[in-house]
């Protein structure tokens, strides 16, 4: 049996120092370290893995840049259609409680060229990482435009802060509500505009909203290298036609069978590999594994189309194989 070391971040114990109302059905949680000291630093776009008491591990974006006091701030939407994480957190966790989290990780970072222009799109709770991006861009005096879409203003977080924020002349913030006047509705083609080597697009929100923004950008000629996204959840996958396949461990030649009703990640865990798992939906990228041979059946939302086409990585939490065997770099 081969036991591999896990690259998961060290777990941190934090205290909920405040719960706040951010919008209808959205609560904010302020988290501070249990003992004296600072929390690990982060930049806009980062998220933490939060171990929901009595529930699963869920990812939440950090919506405020670090301030004078050490704390992380997350926004949680009550979603009755979720798999239980948000409901358990909102119903059971109060100020004064202790939670277990990971250090921040960032798969949605801003491009680091100070001269680049950014176009930010947020739908619903997708505002959490986008709001942090707007703060960082404004702090660095970098040009950006933000479009924030929601059903109605009462269900949209940070409205007052966005209206009061003193962004400079390099930034523009637009809010679009479904129940508002026709002239303020989002025109995606106009907002995205023509592609340019110095423009980057960032989008976060419900899957349908994100797909619309990304597809519109592609139709306008944008290339994947300038399109950046972060999904919160994956759509259900039809697994009725799944078949067994094999995983070969490149370093040892060990062969592991993945049954039709089993994920590749579960097969690896059962075989003794300490595989890092977090979202288990192919959204966060935590379990990304290098593929040495074979063709994956990509079912994640993390990799770009170009990355999928290379077939040199896959997400064992949700993806499978089109060939009878995958050789993995483990």
Automatic annotation (TrEMBL):
Which SUPFAM superfamilies does UniProt cross-reference here?
2Fe-2S ferredoxin-like, Ferredoxin reductase-like, C-terminal NADP-linked domain, Riboflavin synthase domain-like
InterPro entries tied to this protein: 2Fe-2S_ferredoxin-like_sf, 2Fe-2S_ferredoxin-type, 2Fe2S_fd_BS, Beta-grasp_dom_sf, FAD-bd_FR_type, FNR_nucleotide-bd, MRET, OxRdtase_FAD/NAD-bd
Query: What positions does the domain FAD-binding FR-type occupy?
Result: 9-111
Q: Which UniProt keywords apply?
A: 2Fe-2S, Flavoprotein, Iron, Iron-sulfur, Metal-binding, Oxidoreductase
Q: Which GO molecular function terms does the record list? A: 2 iron, 2 sulfur cluster binding; metal ion binding; oxidoreductase activity
Q: What is the superkingdom listed in this entry's lineage?
A: Bacteria
Q: What Pfam families does the entry give?
A: Fer2 (PF00111), NAD_binding_1 (PF00175)
PROSITE patterns under this entry? 2FE2S_FER_1, 2FE2S_FER_2, FAD_FR
Question: Where is each 2Fe-2S ferredoxin-type domain found?
Answer: 243-330
This chain belongs to which protein, by name?
PDR/VanB family oxidoreductase
């Amino acid at each position: 049996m081969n036991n591999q070391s896990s690259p998961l971040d060290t777990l941190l114990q934090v205290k909920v120092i405040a719960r706040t109302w951010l919008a209808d059905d959205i609560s904010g949680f302020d988290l501070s370290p249990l003992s004296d000291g600072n929390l690990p630093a982060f930049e806009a776009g980062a998220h933490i893995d939060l171990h929901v008491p009595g529930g699963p591990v869920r990812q939440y974006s950090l919506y405020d840049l670090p301030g004078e006091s050490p704390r992380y701030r997350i926004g949680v939407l009550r979603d009755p259609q979720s798999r239980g994480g948000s409901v358990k957190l909102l119903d059971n966790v109060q100020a004064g409680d202790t939670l277990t989290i990971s250090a921040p990780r960032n798969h949605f970072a801003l491009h680091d060229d100070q001269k680049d222009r950014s176009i930010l799109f947020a739908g619903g709770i997708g505002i959490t990482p986008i709001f942090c991006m707007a703060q960082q861009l404004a702090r660095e005096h970098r040009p950006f435009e933000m479009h924030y879409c929601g059903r109605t203003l009462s269900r949209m977080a940070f409205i007052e802060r966005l209206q009061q924020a003193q962004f400079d002349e390099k930034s523009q913030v637009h809010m679009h509500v479904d129940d508002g006047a026709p002239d303020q509705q989002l025109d995606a083609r106009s907002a995205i505009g023509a592609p340019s080597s110095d423009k980057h697009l960032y989008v976060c929100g419900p899957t349908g909203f994100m797909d619309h923004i990304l597809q519109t950008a592609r139709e306008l000629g944008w290339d994947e290298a300038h399109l950046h996204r972060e999904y919160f959840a994956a759509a259900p996958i039809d697994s009725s036609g799944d078949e067994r396949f094999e995983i070969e461990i490149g370093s040892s030649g060990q062969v592991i069978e993945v049954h039709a009703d089993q994920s590749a990640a579960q097969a690896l865990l059962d075989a003794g590999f300490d595989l890092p798992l977090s979202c288990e939906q192919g959204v966060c990228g935590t379990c990304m594994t290098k593929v040495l041979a074979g063709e994956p059946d990509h079912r994640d939302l993390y990799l770009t189309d170009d990355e999928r086409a290379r077939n040199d990585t896959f997400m064992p939490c949700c993806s499978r194989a089109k060939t009878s065997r995958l050789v993995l770099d483990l």
